[in-house]
């Protein structure tokens, strides 16, 4: 898998990366997770699973790995794997995020799994925690789920801390969430600070597309998350039109859904959220799928309005 520049940053990423949201903690909002993982979700089992998927991703050529402070022990698992496998910092791009904190206590039935705080104090503390684990491997540090309403893009203390981090050679970015992603992206571009933006774009939720094109044109690298909509664009939940189109092309629905993302000219790296080696293989098959005008026309219908999409996402159970 050839690497390419991620926007104006000095980072070189692969077209597909691996996100660790579903690997670093026992519960997450992915359809079919019980079937994927079964009951073996203690720390040792999840660490072993994470390393297996990381090994498979590395063997397939993936060189961008995305994690966050709130992904349970994902940073710890990734750091241990990097050290054990002797991966030099120059050979990989590692992005992490600050702002959410994991509070689930490694319980499936936790009342809350994460809490959000986008203050400068949280940034300073979590950056220290991330650096302690990832050290020189940390290439990119991102605000986790920035929104206009959070006020984080107007917080001069936060922006000052991020500028200082950028001056130290770490690229800075943000991830976005919710039905007003486009407004957040445009505001982030206007600050002139950010090197990257990570947003949700998939066949069901396309509202950020024009804003991501503007961000790309302004020099930001674009990372796309949730390309299979937390499982809703896999064989477990895909709309009939996607299932038929995938069958005709001899691939799984998730591969075709990810091919749609890869075809966007502004997409720098698209994340697989695979929790198993099998899922990873199906996701990576997207790299060999040709997304053409017929697919674009045939699969225009599954799109939902943003409010509906995000309401349905919020209703997904942690399992």
Question: Keywords for this structure?
Answer:
319 residues, alpha/beta, TIM Barrel, eight-stranded parallel β-barrel, 12 helices, NADP_OxRdtase_dom, Aldo/keto reductase, AKR2_Oxidoreductase
Describe the 3D structure:
The protein has twelve helices and twelve strands. With 319 residues, the chain is of the alpha/beta class. The strands form three sheets. Strands 3-4-5-8-9-10-11-12 form an eight-stranded parallel β-barrel, surrounded by six helices. The protein has a two-stranded antiparallel ribbon with strand order 1-2. The chain is globular. The model has no long low-confidence stretch (mean pLDDT 97). Helices cover 39% and strands 16% of the residues. The longest helix has 17 residues, at 43-59. Helix 2 (43-59) crosses helix 3 (74-85) and helix 4 (120-134) runs parallel beside helix 5. Helix 7 (209-217) links the parallel strand 10 (196-200) and strand 11. It has a single domain, classed as NADP-dependent oxidoreductase domain (TIM Barrel). The two termini are 33 Å apart.
Task: Give me the secondary-structure topology.
Layout: E1 4-5, E2 12-13, E3 16-19, H1 33-37, H2 43-59, E4 64-66, H3 74-85, E5 93-98, E6 100-102, E7 114-116, H4 120-134, E8 138-146, H5 156-167, E9 171-176, H6 181-191, E10 196-200, H7 209-217, E11 221-225, H8 240-249, H9 253-262, E12 269-272, H10 277-284, H11 293-298, H12 306-314
Parallel strand pairs: 3-4, 3-12, 4-5, 5-8, 8-9, 9-10, 10-11, 11-12
Antiparallel strand pairs: 1-2, 6-7
Helix pairs in contact: 2-3, 4-5, 6-7, 8-9
Pfam families: Aldo_ket_red
Protein name: Aldo/keto reductase
InterPro entries: AKR2_Oxidoreductase, NAD(P)_OxRdtase_dom_sf, NADP_OxRdtase_dom
């Amino acid at each position: 898998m050839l690497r390419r520049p991620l926007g104006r940053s000095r980072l070189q990423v692969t077209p597909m990366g691996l996100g660790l949201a579903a690997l670093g903690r026992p519960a997450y909002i992915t359809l079919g997770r019980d079937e994927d993982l079964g009951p073996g979700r203690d720390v040792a089992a999840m660490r072993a699973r994470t390393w297996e998927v990381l090994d498979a991703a590395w063997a397939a050529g993936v060189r961008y790995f995305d994690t966050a402070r709130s992904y349970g022990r994902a940073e710890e698992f990734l750091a241990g794997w990097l050290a054990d496998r002797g991966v030099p910092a120059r050979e990989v791009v590692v992005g992490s995020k600050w702002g959410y904190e994991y509070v689930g206590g490694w319980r499936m039935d936790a009342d809350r799994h994460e809490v959000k705080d986008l203050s400068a104090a949280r940034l300073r503390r979590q950056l220290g925690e991330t650096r302690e684990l990832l050290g020189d491997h940390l290439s990119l540090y991102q605000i986790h789920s920035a929104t206009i309403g959070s006020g984080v893009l107007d917080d001069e203390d936060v922006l000052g801390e991020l500028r200082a981090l950028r001056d130290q050679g770490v690229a800075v970015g943000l991830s976005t969430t919710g039905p007003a992603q486009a407004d957040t992206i445009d505001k982030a571009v206007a600050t002139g600070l950010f090197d990257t933006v990570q947003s949700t774009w998939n066949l069901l939720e396309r509202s950020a597309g024009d804003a991501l094109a503007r961000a790309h044109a302004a020099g930001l690298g674009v990372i796309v998350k949730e390309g299979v909509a937390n499982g809703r664009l896999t064989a477990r939940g895909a709309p009939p039109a996607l299932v038929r189109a995938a069958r005709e092309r001899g691939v799984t629905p998730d591969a075709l859904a990810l091919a749609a993302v890869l075809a966007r000219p502004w997409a720098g790296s698209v994340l697989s959220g695979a929790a198993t080696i099998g899922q990873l293989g199906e996701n990576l098959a997207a790299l060999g799928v040709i997304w053409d005008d017929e697919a674009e026309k045939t699969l225009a219908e599954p799109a939902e309005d943003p409010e509906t999409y995000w309401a349905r996402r919020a209703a997904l159970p942690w399992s």
